[in-house]
Structures are given as C-alpha cells and as structure tokens.
Amino acid sequence: MSRALLLLAALSACAVGAGGTTVGEWRPKRVVDSTACIATGPDSCGKVIEIGSEQPARSFGGGVVAFAVPGYAQAHANGASESAFVLDGSYEYLRGRGRFALACRVGLSLIDGSQHSWIAMPVTAIGHAGGAWGSVFAGVGYAPLLTERHAGARATYLHDGVEGLLGTRIILRETLGRYITVSPELRYQLAGDATIVSLTANLGLHL
Predict the structure, then answer these.
(1) What is the pTM (predicted TM-score) of this model?
(2) Residue 176 backbone class (left: φ over 0; alpha: ψ -120 to 50; beta: rest)
(3) Within-domain flag for 184
(4) Predicted confidence (pLDDT) per residue in 75-132, tens digit
(5) What is the Rg, in whole angstroms, of the alpha carbon atoms belonging to the chain?
(6) Which domain does 122 fall in, by range?
(7) Cβ proximity of 40 and 115 under 8 Å
(8) How far is residue 164 from each of residues 87, 121, 125, 140, 146, measured CA to CA in Å?
(9) Residue 37, C-beta contacts closer than 8 angstroms, at least 6 positions apart
C-alpha cells in the first residue's frame, strides 16, 4: 500500500475550486478604477486622486475538489506511537457572505503507518473567515465509515471516528479573477483506540 500511496503523492497535492471559493475575495472593499494627478508645475505632480467605488459584501457559493493531497501523521495506539503517510481527497461545498462562509466537506482519508493503517470517510462541517490575503477555517466531523488494519490482520470496521481540523487558504497570486492558493491543514482524529494527528497541504486553482 505504501508504494501506491507514494506514487499518487508524486502526482498530487492539487485542488480545483469553482464559484466563490476564495472567501476573502467577497469582503467589502474599495476598488480603484483609475488615478488622476493634480499638477503643481510642468513636470511635477502635487497630489494624486484615486477614482473608484466602494463594493459592499457579496453573497457567494462554490465547490472545491481536492485530490491526492499528501501529508504526514503521528498515530498513537495502545501506548505506542508510529509515523504514517497520509493521502486525502475531498469535495467541499460552501456558501457565505462577505468575509464568512459555512461549508460541508465529504472526504476520503488513507493513513498508512508501519504497524497500522486506516481508511476513513468523514463528513465535516467547516466555518471560514477571510480577508485580502486569504482565509482561515476550522471544522468538526464524523466518519460513518472507518476501518483499521493491523499488520498481518484483516481490516476491522470502527463506528466512532471523529475529527477536528484547523487550516488556512493563502492567496499566492490573482490574475483576471483566477486565484492560486496554498492550503495547509492540521487535523486531529480519534479512530477507535487510536489518536492521529496529521498535517497536509495542497496547491489550489480557483476559477
């Protein structure tokens, strides 16, 4: 399983968003359309006047698909700890206004350690708050489908998988309404008797 995960990670760390998925974009803001100079002499500009408009907060909505997002995890189970490789995928739909949004995410998480591996499909409620630079978000979720496999044993189905997450979406570049972002995310999961703390990150294109 580890080789397959590493192969996918080499082609991964991507997210694609459509609609209003960069929360900070929709905050109230002043947009400068042009500037004018009041001259005080033949070759001097005494004062620059900005000509623009105030844009109010707007309602928005959209979806983000993330696929093959890699990361690192520390898992603690039965008094022992192990490092693990994480590979995530998800679909998140969000609705909001101005600087804030609420979202629902459905994900698939593969966590592969030296002694244990887990597969989880969490459903997570997320809140976003944004500004000119990007946004931060936090959420809580439950995994109705969660399996655990110990080395050399069959998979065990668990029914008490919960998680909490904290992350940020930082705008790296904006061109003609297209945004490139980076999104690191820290997640805390309870999977049966195990506790898993993971860190993932992806690059996003928001159309």
Answers:
(1) 0.85
(2) left
(3) yes
(4) 998 788 999 999 999 999 999 999 999 999 999 999 999 899 999 999 999 999 999 9
(5) 22
(6) 2-27+57-206
(7) no
(8) 17, 14, 10, 4, 15
(9) 45, 46, 47, 48, 49
